[in-house]
Amino acid sequence: MDPTKLVQESMPLCATLGVTAAESTPDEVVLELAWDASLCTIGGAMHGGTLMALADSAGATCAFLNLPPDAAGTSTIESKTNFLGAATEGVVVATARPLHVGSTTIVVETELRVGDRLIGKTTQTQIVRRKR
User: Fold this and answer.
1) CB atoms < 10 A from the CB of 36, how many?
2) What is the DSSP string of the chain?
3) Which of 79, 82, 123, 132 is the most exposed, having the fewest neighbouring CB atoms within 10 Å of its CB?
4) CATH of domain 3-130
5) Positive or negative CA dihedral for 15, 37, 83, 96?
6) Helix crossing, 48-65 with 3-10: angle to 10°?
7) Per-residue pLDDT reduced to its tens digit, 71-129
8) Domain residue extents for the chain
9) What distance in Å separates the CA atoms of residue 64 and residue 89, rounded to the nearest whole number?
10) Which of 63, 46, 61 is nearest to 5 (CA)?
11) Contacts of 5 (CB under 8 A, 6+ apart)
């Protein structure tokens, strides 16, 4: 399946925001979101909630691609974001990589960048949901 289609169909908010997938493998997920005034706060900076949604979506996709065969899905149970800069133009690129892939949790780290500039870092824990 096309990576953008997978992301947008499994997380409709991504379609609403305009998130696209540049790469989608168990080792690395890369999602992109172009700056748009409708996604900003006063001053033209992309809203922190929008950036967190992008990072969460990249991390969730990475966790999903690392689920064990008997899993029913995944869900974020903890997330921490440090903002290091603002996105006031261009494309925000979220790159997610697994830090820990276990049978009950998956921990993912996501970098948010505009060009070469690091603007945020998110670490999140995803629970491995089991079939009932």
Assistant:
1) 11
2) --HHHHHHHH-HHHHHHT-EEEEE-SS-EEEEEE--GGGB-TTSPBPHHHHHHHHHHHHHHHHHHT--TTEEEEEEEEEEEEE-S---SSEEEEEEEEEEE-SSEEEEEEEEEETTEEEEEEEEEEEEEEP-
3) 132
4) 3.10.129.10
5) positive
6) 110
7) 999 999 999 999 999 999 999 999 999 999 999 999 999 999 999 999 999 999 999 99
8) 3-130
9) 30
10) 61
11) none
Residues 6+ apart with CB under 8 A from 69: none
Residues 112 and 95: their CA atoms lie apart, in Å, by 7
The Cα 108–Cα 76 span in angstroms is: 10
- Which tokens is 21 given? 């997938």
